Each structure stands twice: as C-alpha cells, then as structure tokens.
Amino acid sequence: MAVHDIDYVLVYGDDDQPSLMSMCTTQASNDEIHKMDRERFNDAMREAGLQLEEMVNPRNEKENFILITAPFSVLAKQAEKMQIEFPLDYEPPKDDETLRGCCSGDQLSRLWSNIGRKIRSDEERGDFIARKFIYDDYEMYRGSDGEKKDFFRPGLRSLLVHNILIGLDVRRANHDAEDPSQQQHQKHGLLYMRMVGVYTADFPLHGPSMLDDYSQFTCCCCRQRKPEEDTQSTRTTSLIGETDDRKELYDKWARCRAWFKFQPLWRVRDYFGEEIALYFAWCGHLISSLWIPALVGFAIFAYGLDVR
C-alpha cells in the first residue's frame, strides 16, 4: 500500500495504561477484551468496504498501525449519505456588462487588475451551481472527467472516512429491541473504541510532498525505502504523482515572502477542510479590521512623543 493510498491510521499498543472503562479489570483480562473488540471492529471496517493493512511501527516495536484505505465507491456512498453538495459540471451564464465593468478601459482598472494578480495566491473558481451528491449521477459533477482517486479533495476524504468509522456499531449484545432513538448514542464505533482504550490514537496522513526527505522513510507508516540509485526526481514523482498540494500551500501561504498576498483559502479548504479554512479566514478578517485602529493608535503615540 503506497503512502498516498492511506486515508486513515489507527494506533494500538501493549495497553500499558489502563483505560477509563477498565479500572476494575486485571491487565490480562483487559488485554483480551481489547483484542476481541479490535478484531470485531476490524471485521466491521472490512464489511463496510474499507481496505486494511496492519504493520508494526518501525520506530517503536510495541506500537502497531492499522492503515485504512477507502475505495471510491465507499467514499461516494458515504458522501451521498451525508448529503454533501458538489459543484455541477455546468457554468452559469455570465453577464457581459458585469464582466466589462464600468471602468474596463481605464488605466486605473488595468493597474488594479495587475496589482490583484500580484497579491492573489489562489485560483479564481468563479460561480457554480451545487447539488447534493448522488452516486448514480456521478458524471454530472465537476471533476468527474478526471481520475476517481482525485475526485474527493484530501480534507473531504478524511472527513468521510472518519464518519464511516464513528458510524460503525460492534456491540456484542443483540440490540434490536432497544429504543431506536437511543441507538445512535450507544453505538460502539471509533469514539467508543478510543474511550475504552482499544485504540490509542487515530489520525489521517499528509500526502507525500517534495518537502519530505525521501532518503529515509517518508513517515513511520511507510515501509518502502527507495533504491539509492534512483534519482530524486524519480523518487518524488513516483510517490507524489501529478499534484503536490503541500508544496503549493508552502510556496503560496507559509513562506515569509508571501506575507503581502491574500490567503489561498480555497487550497486550505481543499487540503484541510472547511473548518480550518474558516478559522484562517476569520483570522485574516480580524487582522485586516485592526489596520485602521492600529494606524490611529500609532499616530496618537507619535503625537504624544512630539508633545513631550
């Protein structure tokens, strides 16, 4: 399993630390219970269509990883279940007057356009019409003409897989007679497994990037070491593919020389998700709103020095 194929990672160890739900049990019985719960949860993940691969952490032999890959069909069905909206492969008609603007021929307008290109760090996506995702109508959505593995952006893939894991139910007892309104709160999914200590951690992985050092392991979940005779370009191309989202974010967002540019919020949203993008959008708006008070405060401070 290549690094870029891993959507999620679960971690479990030797259960050295007792969990909140097992304080009254012996260590041996606790380990057995965790092993049984882990096997049942792994079976539930396979039944949900997820592909699993287990490996030992090469940096810590007492720690184990479960590498999870979600095929496109599983992600598509989950996106349809969550009623996530996607842009349709259709561009709404544009008004010529709106495009030209009232000052399209003025030098001031051209100057402002040139400045905008210098400080803009994100692509213009324009207007689009969105619709709730339906798996059977996959060809109607923007991006369906490319490879299926690239249809879901990285942040959304992590969200879909996480929701699949927390929605699994591996309770031992028959719960058909229970109150249906209470079943959602009593599910033994990923959150329950974390609470009782079956898994010690869960997280998505960053994709491979030119920023990584491929002379050693790409990460602790990657077992493949590239031959020494391979060139750097061959190594990175084979692992990264056509796009390098992390490097683009670094070049256009995280470097000091990009301080004067607008934040690439579309790229942040695609890679990290809407919540992270909204946070940085709010931070940018807050900082911009403080420019005028800062200038007024500095002017008052300078006037005070002059008076003295």
Describe, in plain words, how this protein is organized in 3D.
The strands form two sheets. The chain has a four-stranded antiparallel beta sheet. Strands 4-5 form a two-stranded antiparallel ribbon. The protein is extended, with a radius of gyration of 25 Å. The longest helix is centred in the first third of the chain and has 21 residues, at 27-47. The chain has helices at residues 27-47, 72-81, 96-100, 107-119, 154-166, 180-183, 190-196, 232-240, 245-254, 265-272, 274-289, 291-307, and strands at 8-12, 51-56, 64-69, 85-87, 130-132, 201-203. The termini are far apart. The chain has twelve helices and six strands. α10 packs antiparallel against α11 (274-289). β2 and β3 (64-69) form a beta hairpin. By secondary structure, the protein is of the alpha+beta class.
